[in-house]
Amino acid sequence: MAERRMFAKSVINSARFLTMPPSSRLLYYDLGMAADDDGVVEAFTVMRTTGAADDDLRVLVSKGFVSLLNDELVAYITDWSTNNQIRKDRYQPSIYKNLLVKLGDGNQRLTDGLPDGNQRSTQYRLGKDSLGKVSTGEENNAATPPRAKRFTPPTLAEVQSYVAERHSAVDPQSFIDFYEAKGWMVGKTPMKNWKAACRNAENWERWRQRPTRAESWDRVKRDEEYRTGEDFFDA
Questions:
Q1: How confident is the model at residue 91 (pLDDT cuts 50, 70, 90)?
Q2: Are 212 and 168 within 8 A, CB to CB?
Q3: What local confidence, expressed as pLDDT, does residue 84 receive?
Q4: How far is Cα 18 from Cα 24, in angstroms, rounded to an integer?
Q5: What is the pLDDT of residue 92?
Q6: Among 156, 152, 155, which Cα is nearest to 184's?
Q7: In 108-203, beta strands by DSSP E
Q8: Within 10 A of 137 (CB to CB), how many other CB atoms are there?
Q9: pLDDT in the model for residue 81
Q10: Which of 9, 26, 105, 119 is deepest in the core (most CB within 10 A)?
């Protein structure tokens, strides 16, 4: 199988491509890099490897950049022959070649067995157990729930500001070091809200012996106390 993959400017510079969300465009590149010589790729595997969301694949399907071949999300990149011209001595037929026939009788086929890059035939629907039922070939106008934002680890300044706001005893640098060492995982689950984790960290034993910022300030003698004439070093 060829080790190099290309993307035609006529495809990736088109308005149809550029109007997609950045995450959908990135998934298209990832699918193209993982596809075999017939442009067939196991989309489910790529999505789980890269962390792409289900909606990213929905957009690619609705825009006609990807055709699903079965309910296991084996997909065909419809502009494959436009993007890639593979030498016959390096070409290896897809293990899913039998599924390409199901794209429809109206598809033109190249002499080397590759479907052309402009199919808009009847395809499989996205399985309800994976992405839900979505028709392909035209824009999906059905309202979809907003996708959750990907987690971004906080900066030291952000944690310092939040800790000061709460007058918390949590040490910002130690908090960041702790979760960075764990890959920002909470148990076996990726962290979703670092502020919630910071509030929970206030109950850790390591912080219970430390005074909060407010408590530390209360221990500092005020100017009026020094004017009482008491010994400067009295507790």
A1: low
A2: yes
A3: 75
A4: 10
A5: 67
A6: 152
A7: 185-186, 189-190
A8: 15
A9: 79
A10: 119
